[in-house]
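> forwarded from #structure-qc
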């Protein structure tokens, strides 16, 4: 845990840019909010938010696992 926090942060921003191009949203929403309302809001306010949070947590843990597996470390 905590091997590539900067790489995960950069990947998070890249994912945000990708979502920005794929999902249409209004001016008062972020791409992440639009993604939530598109997929997870139908599960209800509590379960939908829980599944949404777990989804992004698992996505970034898997990305960090792939980086660790192939010994790709971002060093400054």
């Amino acid at each position: 845990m905590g091997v590539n926090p900067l790489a995960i942060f950069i990947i998070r921003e890249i994912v945000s840019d990708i979502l920005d191009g794929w999902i249409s949203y209004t001016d008062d929403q972020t791409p992440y909010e639009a993604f939530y309302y598109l997929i997870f809001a139908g599960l209800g306010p509590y379960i939908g938010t829980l599944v949404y949070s777990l989804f992004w947590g698992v996505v970034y843990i898997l990305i960090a696992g792939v980086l660790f597996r192939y010994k790709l470390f971002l060093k400054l």
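QC bot note: The helical segments are 5-22, 31-40, 45-69. The chain has one domain: 5-69.
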